[in-house]
């Protein structure tokens, strides 16, 4: 059994295969972009929950110390320590330490 194909038929077959590969790659890129977007949303929600939980814990401890430990140095420690942590975090977040060079395609972020 022999298959006789013309040059036009072979080129058409290669063109169809190339089109299928391009459609497949475009679909995988869109799926990857959608997954990255979903992950970013979950990270933000998780971070927000942790920040609110930590803030509630700090406020609870501060409330207890202020209501039951009036006139002691513990009040200043309980109010000052979270302020120091907050100042440190904000200073690091708002300070530009280095400018990163341009990344090539395919480099990890």
Automatic annotation (TrEMBL):
Keywords: Membrane, Transmembrane, Transmembrane helix. The chain crosses the membrane at residues 6-26, 47-67, 73-99. This is Uncharacterized protein. It comes from Saccharothrix xinjiangensis.
């Amino acid at each position: 059994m022999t298959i006789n194909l013309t040059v036009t038929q072979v080129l058409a077959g290669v063109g169809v295969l190339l089109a299928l590969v391009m459609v497949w790659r475009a679909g995988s890129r869109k799926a990857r972009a959608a997954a990255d977007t979903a992950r970013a949303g979950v990270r933000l929600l998780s971070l927000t929950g942790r920040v609110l939980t930590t803030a509630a814990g700090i406020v609870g401890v501060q409330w207890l110390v202020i209501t039951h430990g009036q006139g002691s140095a513990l009040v200043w420690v309980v109010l000052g320590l979270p302020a120091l942590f907050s100042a440190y975090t904000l200073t690091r977040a708002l300070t530009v330490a280095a400018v990163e060079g341009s990344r090539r395609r395919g480099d990890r972020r």
